[in-house]
Amino acid sequence: MEFLKGAYSMLPHKFRGGRDPAEQAVLSTKTVVSVLCAACSLQEGAGVPDLPNHGLSPPVYPSPPGSGSTNGRWTTAYDRARDLVSQMTVEERVNITQGWPGICVGNTGEVPRLGIPALCFADGPSGIRGQEFVSAFPAGIHVAATFDRDLMYRYGRALGDEFHGKGINVALGPVAGPLGRVAKGGRNWEGLSNDPYLAGAGMGAVTRGIQDAGVIATPKHWLLNEQEFRRRWTELGDAVSANVDDRTLHELYAFPFMDALREGAGAVMCSYQRTNHSYACQNSKLLNGVLKTELGFEGFVVSDWDGQMSGVASANAGLDLVMPRAGFWGDNLAEAVRNGSVSEERLGDMAIRILAPWHYLHQHTAYPPPAIYTNTQKHFPVDVQADHARLIEEIGAAGTVLVKNVNNTLPFKKPKFLCVYGYGAALKASPWQNRDRYGGGYEDNFGWNTFNGTLITAGGSGGSSPPYVVSPFQALQERVAQDRGILRWDFYSEDPTPYVNADACLVFINAYASESFDRPSLKDDFSDRLVLNVASWCANTIVVVHSAGIRTVDAWIAHPNVTATLFAGLPGQEAGHSLASVLYGDVNPTGRLPYTVARSESDYGDLLNPTTSSDPFPEANFTEGLFIDYRYFDKHSITPQFEFGFGLSYTSFAYADLSVSKTTTTTTTTDLAEFPDKNVRIVQGGHPALWEVVALAKCTVTNTGAVDGAEIAQLYVSIPGGDSPVRQLRGFAKVGPLVPGQEREVVFELTRRDLSVWDVVVQDWRLRRGVYEIWVGASSRDLRLKGELEVR
Ligand code: BGC
């Protein structure tokens, strides 16, 4: 694993799984028309399960031109973009639809005579990667664990301010693909949880934050990039085909992207793998159909890096910009327009779609030039960190999940003697040969590797480049010094020497993951033995897990000497301070698990591993449909170790008085239309009626414990019909902080989308007739109140 991670991070970006440019050159656009267009049309999948449209990618042509009709701001942006594009030659239009070598991870072509600059694209979702004087924010999964919309927005805004400060036009995030179907998925940690509603809340808030700072957000990867294994074309054959039925595609995987689109996302990145047998960046159903027609997308679709697999086919299927180089386009695209394989309108639409978000975000007026540097350049760095460290510390603490705490072990009460164990507690000395001021991330600059050093981010393009890292050891030292206590440590041994007088022993373990490979395991033996060895003599063993996703804990969680356990996620540069504030009770934990921790790996069943195959056309059949993570556990009555939405507080809460009511009622038999009104125009984000609040649920939450604290109240819905998940998250709210005895009313707004299913026959969102069960509680399994909503 360590070898793989190291190998990945040492590869120059362009070679990370990319196609050989020479090979691309020989495949001209015309060749591609005949060879690859079959891939964009209707195809039957082998062994297709009995699910509607499973494995099918119906052709959707022509590509719908962007209209700018979503709202006045888009209309103005489109007017300006159209005006510019009308003045451009075919060559100039082609030039801005392709990447060029430059200082950024991606650079578009420029048209100086019209004042159109090269747009600068940069990774990634949790901070600007590979630059100096930038912040390392918590990863997406950590932000999701806060269940806090306000923090999600402030995260996006701070990220956006940093991209803006560095003159980066386009931020390559946020992530909702992978969603997290496969427990061992290598990139699940980049995204905002495997629940589409929670991820959607994050996608919307982060997109709004980034774009409020004037930067174009790029929700990615559209769509179904659920595993790293064979995510790309290789010498073995085609990339894996993620085969999914139409309902699941909409209700699970497209769902969180809808929120980002609703908030005005200016770009969307299509993914590497095939979806229903057609490469995602040339899949007309996904791009022309779902994204640009159903969801009214006004912006541009950019390919994942070297993810373009055809020329004419991708152009006609709805791809607007190829990165990081011309790929199959460039001169070939100009030729295809001249010979009619791609229409002039389509090329014009690509250029308009690229320039419209640039105007929508007012980047055409005054935008700082890119301040992106390499090791060979001398410069005065632009410092964009501002006071983001405080926000990072706050989110770091808010996303830390306390899952075990017996005998009030935590919070600490001025302990005098702490022992600190495990590789995850501190930073490792930086090995000179790997140091790199730019280009590298945490792995290179902090000498971090799989089992050495505090895990604050994970690997690949989603990783961050911290200015510094406050390790747990550093933060604990600060606290112990204040309390005039003592500290002993051993970061290396698997079986450390006992200190029998310690008040508590903290054991720090990690679970790493990275882009480009899936996780070999959800646990590791060294770490499990380390915990058991310490627990064998230390009666107050506290385990802290920094993990890039699920980490199973069956080896030691029930040990009587393991008195407390925290899932500390991937908290970013202030890791130690965030953790210490929870351990010492300055922050009463509100973090909740954004995934299900099973009692054993095998409980995930077919959702544990990616689909591995050496077949030239590998297939991953998503036969579980809507039933991933807690929906799978609920459906099959599997008891988890710690369920989705679970997390402890230092206080307790009582729930009461649930009422559920419709916001619109009539005296007729049909009180809410089954389908959105067909005569209303689709805008970006989908039919406007999907976002209308159709019902309210209200209850009270009371702090019944002895200390101040906030609760994360969660609302789950059972949709009638017997073919939906037992329960689905459809609301959450941070309530408080409340002082002991204090009560507060919580109001959950339920939109039409929250209560609808995707009707595969009508091809629209349908509000089912019948009785909806509404559950409110503290997790997906700790349900305290039940109500009903009848839709007639
Ligand atoms: C990743 C993208 C990333 C791009 C640019 C690709 O390998 O899949 O998420 O934005 O590289 O670095």
From TrEMBL:
This enzyme's EC code(s): 3.2.1.21
The keyword Transferase is assigned to this record: no
This protein's pathway: Glycan metabolism; cellulose degradation
Molecular function terms, GO-annotated = beta-glucosidase activity
Question: Record's superkingdom?
Answer: Eukaryota
Matching entries from Gene3D superfamilies are given as:
Glycoside hydrolase family 3 C-terminal domain (3.40.50.1700), Glycoside hydrolase, family 3, N-terminal domain (3.20.20.300), Immunoglobulins (2.60.40.10)
The membrane spanning regions, by residue number, are none
Q: Which UniProt keywords apply?
A: Carbohydrate metabolism, Cellulose degradation, Glycoprotein, Glycosidase, Hydrolase, Polysaccharide degradation, Secreted, Signal
What is the reaction catalyzed?
Hydrolysis of terminal, non-reducing beta-D-glucosyl residues with release of beta-D-glucose
Q: What is its main location?
A: secreted
> Biological process GO terms, please?
cellulose catabolic process
InterPro entries on file: Cellulose_deg_GH3 (IPR050288), Fn3-like (IPR026891), GH (IPR017853), Glyco_hydro_3_C (IPR002772), Glyco_hydro_3_C_sf (IPR036881), Glyco_hydro_3_N (IPR001764), Glyco_hydro_3_N_sf (IPR036962), Ig-like_fold (IPR013783)
GO cellular component terms, semicolon-separated:
extracellular region
Q: Where in the cell is it found?
A: Secreted
Domain Fibronectin type III-like residues, every copy: 711-780
Similarity annotation: Belongs to the glycosyl hydrolase 3 family.
Return the protein name.
Beta-glucosidase cel3A
Q: Name the source organism.
A: Chaetomium strumarium
